[in-house]
Amino acid sequence: MVKVTFTVDESTVRTLRTTAERLGKPQSLVVREALAEYAARAGQLADVERRRLLRAVDAIMKRPPTRSDAAAERERAAVRRARRRGGRRRRTE
Asked: For residue 60, how many C-alpha atoms fall within 13 Å in the half-sphere facing its CB?
């Protein structure tokens, strides 16, 4: 373990202390767990970015199809056949 020093406001200290006491855990463990949870969520899309991407998908879905249903079904059937055969047998370069 490495010791570090942070400066936080009184409200944060109270929250940390009450949370640690309520959970029966050391304050340092509460901070470590909170930081791990925050880091896990930090990789997720922000709400604004998620909405932007959903709008893009909605716009794509509103476009008319570029091929017939029959052509799309032929492609799906070809993909299914390839998957049943095990896909690629050799490396691609």
From this structure: 6
